[in-house]
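Lab notebook: predicted structure, single chain.

Context: the supervisor wants predicted structures on file for every construct in the current expression panel, including those that have not yet been purified. This is the next one on the list. No modifications to the sequence; it matches the entry in the shared construct table.
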Amino acid sequence: MTDETTYGDVLARNIRAARSRKGLNQETLAARMRALGYTAWLRQTVANVEKGRRRATAEEILGLGYALETSIAALMKPTDDDKLVTFPSGRSIAAWWVQRSAAGFNDSAVEWNDDIPGFAGPREAALVELAAQGGGDWRRVNQTTGDVSYYDPATGNWVKRESGEPGPRGGE
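Prediction complete. Output recorded below exactly as produced.
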């Protein structure tokens, strides 16, 4: 597996894997989708989604979760083998951040300064993982704004520190 993958590829691979685990062929999955009201779904639709030639809509992902008897999160989550997930802009974030997001956590892997994104890298993902496992408190500095944030493993979020306020252990 390559280090970088698009999120569309993650979703396509997970749909294909879930269908395979259930022992369904593409026609059966298409029939299940039609039974849920997705009338345009044919075997070719399944093939195109699984090959990344067609993007599934949010409504279709809901239906796929039920048709495949799995969770939406399972369809959306990168695997542990994935290293980086690439945005259409070409910028990437560690797949670990996307796994956390699919599980319902917003760890601020992308922080905004108006309409300019700042991206967390693999180093920050490793620090968050370490902190979440009880490895200590970690801080990061937004390279765009200079804001200092600390990771709070209790909430799973980055918490901005106000100017002059001590860090979680009383210092920087």
